[in-house]
């Protein structure tokens, strides 16, 4: 754990209304068939315009506004009745740990491909985005940060006595090792809103695929098994390359216009931007929304979405985590194969695009990380990163046992 607050759970994100269509945008695509995704603007959830008031509603949103499905009914009922209805929601999205056997049986004889979101999935949500490490470890590039850790460590024995949940703490420390083990057994990709460089530096595993900037920057592994390396040579896709100068310009403008709002932070994720308001006084949210809105109004080729206490600004191309998942499956040679079983674990609204792709393909499963009932396209759930860790370990263990059984 880092020394900052770990956020246990919060509201689902809500995307804002659409803006006027823009001209088609061509990417730096080295994969011709993916150009089709770039020739249409994505009008589903964005636009540079809109009213700051509606943004505020989205920023404050604590439950979905359109109640349609059984899951949504469970969600709304949860809002009024509490924990009891979480149980109802869990019947629709059972725990991937409790129902592990069901999930394992469905994947029998198929190639599992693992997709993992980063923030809120592999790393607990914390106040400072630059310190969202994957485990309790402190980055080796930040030696000063070790000082408080040393004092905290001396309290660990006391904490162990005091807290019956010590297993959780120890499990979190093991996340990197667990992901490494998963990648030894299955092709594995990290799919994140962060830029690929940053998420790679947090995860520090060169054998993985990385799809940063919400899937707009896809890289293959640097090492790992030879058969994966060969396939990975094809994997390098940056559909929003043409937007780099615009993103840089908007980044500078946003840093300038928001610097008067204490606690706000603009993060440059290379092909997209994040404006964080987790540490901004709620009374200032309206001002922040207005400043962001008035800046991106000048850029009709950019759109806005919401994440967990973050406004996300990205190119208005039809590309998201779901498209990145499809791209990676194809690059790995699994397109059109019935014997592939993708698993996608994520906690945020942007992960829903990937869950939806799996649902539509009827292949594999989405697993939502959440401690509250949410409307989701995922089939299963896990409560928090500590449970993700348990799940990753379990699937490796299961694979090892299956391999043993095949040998005898
Ligand atoms: O797709 P993800 O890997 O989940 O990235 C989504 C955003 O995650 C980060 O922000 C979130 O986590 C921060 C650290 O825990 C937290 O402080 C912030 O409030 C969350 O929104 C990241 O900083 C963003 O750039 C990503 O877009």
Question: What's the short version?
Answer:
By secondary structure, this protein is α/β, with parallel strands linked by helices. Helix content is 40%, strand content 14%. 44% of the residues are buried.
Structure description:
The chain is of the alpha/beta class and 408 residues long. The chain has two domains: 6-62 and 241-315, Alpha-Beta Plaits; 93-125 and 142-240 and 319-407, HAD superfamily/HAD-like (Rossmann fold, 3-Layer(aba) Sandwich), CATH 3.40.50. It is 40% helix and 14% strand. It contains 15 helices and 14 strands. It has helices at 35-38, 52-60, 70-81, 83-92, 100-107, 146-162, 166-173, 175-185, 196-203, 226-232, 244-258, 285-296, 321-331, 352-361, 385-407; strands at residues 6-7, 111-116, 125-126, 188-191, 209-212, 217-219, 236-237, 265-268, 273-276, 302-307, 310-315, 340-346, 365-369, 380-382. The strands form three sheets. The protein has an eight-stranded mixed β-sheet, sandwiched between helices. α2 (52-60) packs across α12 and α7 (166-173) crosses α15 (385-407). The chain is globular and about 65 Å long. Mean pLDDT is 80; it is low at 11-30, 39-49, 62-68, 78-82 and 137-143. It binds ligand L263DTV3. The site of ligand L263DTV3 has 24 residues, from β3, β9 and β11.
